[in-house]
Amino acid sequence: MPEILSGKEVQQAILHQLQPRIASFRESTGRPPGLAVILVGHNPASQIYVRNKVKACQELGIYSEQYNPPETTTTEDVVQLVESLNRRPDIDGILVQMPLPAQVDAQRVILTIDPAKDVDGFHPYNLGQLVSGRPGLRPCTPAGIMRLLEHYRIPVAGKKAVVIGRSDIVGKPMALMLLHAHATVTICHSRTADLAAEARQADLLVVAAGKPALVTAEFIKPGAVVVDVGINRVTDRARVEELFGDDPDKLTSFEKTGSVLVGDVHPRDVRQRAGAYTPVPGGVGPLTIAMLMANTVEAAERRLCKCSASGSLAGWQQGSPT
Length: 322
Ligand code: GUN
Description:
alpha/beta, Rossmann fold, 11 strands, globular, about 45% helix, 3-stranded parallel sheet, binds guanine, 12 helices, 6-stranded parallel sheet, single chain
């Protein structure tokens, strides 16, 4: 049986390490680190993600504020809100939940966020720091995956890594982080010719394609490490049976709720072929939230250093050599 790479276990380890840092930040400043979360409109999936992020703050003792402008809001309104949060001394991190409604210019919004408060690592300043291997706030999901690989002591240097998906949020930064960790990296996407053949070369396969069970047995080199970033809801009974026919618990859960979650990797095939894999749910999801908490603490500590012009940059994610 392949090893199961539990994101929940790594999440606990990350959050545990943050506790003393939050306590000492409170001691130095008399306040907790602060995160502002902006959710425009009422996309149901985004609402769940935001609720989980705010809950994680509460559990850890990070101050959080939530803003919920209406679906019809303008770019200008969001930009003004971000500018007001940039000026707030008690807010260390600003997160604008994506996707934004079509009439809101997401790039302009991201450009408005103070890079020192950009806990998503989406601002071009932070992305530039990542490209050049210099310290900066890193996108949470790929940074969490790197922590997962470290936690389970999965070697990356010299390995062949294939990333399926080229999003700004996951695919591109993931490829850069693996490159900095000395993997030989291929990025695949919707126009890749013979995706399965490319994927089959991988010692380490990271899938962030947004397509339920896209990756089947023929994509997976026997013994490979497979990291599944996808979270898709399946509501079609025949499809659920095809995906989970061998898993009575999933079928029972489908009977109860009318849907089940599946990643971008076929759950039965990955168990048959991989050497290790992240489950869905309980794999990558918890890591994204843990790294958001870590970035908020990083941002708070770094802003404190800048304000006091003293103290160390310990903990600030270091770049790696090229
Ligand atoms: N939408 C999906 N993932 C993310 C994320 O990591 N950050 C933000 N802001 N929006 C998202």
